[in-house]
Amino acid sequence: MSPIVVTPEHPLPCEASGLAERLRAAGIQPTLPRQKIAVLLLSAQQHLTAEQILARLQQAGERVSKATVYNTLNLFAARGIIRQLAVDGERTWFDSNTQPHFHFQDVETGALMDVSPEAVRFAELPPAPEGMEYAGIELFIRLRRV
After folding, report:
1. Does 103 reside within a domain?
2. Angle formed by the axes of helices 66-78 and 50-59, to 10°?
3. Residue 53 belongs to a domain with what CATH number?
4. Axis-axis angle for helices 32-42, 50-59 (nearest 10)
């Protein structure tokens, strides 16, 4: 795996040049550790756990603490840069795709795959309790190999 090079002279690789501005627009100071995490997670539409992100950073020779990874991911999620997904109670996934969509989950590996909202049809939803309204729908379709 090639290193994730982020320095004051070269804040982001050219393929991720808009990420620092994207972080600033969300009210996030783009520190070097945050930029490294942003480059890794936001360079493609993907679903990663904090542990996977930490491992990839370490494999690339980066020195980022576990606490920094968790704090950064929670900050990114709170500011709408990523979606935080609690899928199975065992781990939390961080989704770089913040557009409305659903997920398939491989029950063997835990891996998530996006499902377009247009591919899912709900015939009817139950009425929300009095004084409440729908804020969103999370759908995880669990799959296993045959």
Report:
1. yes
2. 130
3. 1.10.10.10
4. 110
Task: Look up tokens 């500011």; give the residue.
Answer: 79
Q: What is the pTM of this model?
A: 0.79
Judge whether 61 lies within some domain: yes
In a domain, 124, yes or no: yes
Q: What is the pLDDT of residues 54-108, one digit of tens each?
A: 999 999 999 999 999 999 999 999 999 999 998 777 789 999 999 989 999 998 9
List Cβ<8 Å contacts ≥24 apart for 35-39: 35/6, 35/11, 36/4, 36/6, 36/62, 36/64, 37/64, 37/68, 37/69, 37/72, 37/73, 37/76, 38/12, 38/76, 38/81, 39/4, 39/6, 39/12, 39/13
Question: Which three-class secondary structure state does DSSP give residue 87?
Answer: coil
pLDDT digits (tens, 9 = 90+) for 107-144: 898 889 989 889 989 889 999 999 999 988 888 889 99
> In 3-state terms, the chain is what percent helix, strand and coil (to 5)?
30, 15, 50
Q: Are residues 115 and 68 in the same domain?
A: no
| 5 found inside a domain | no
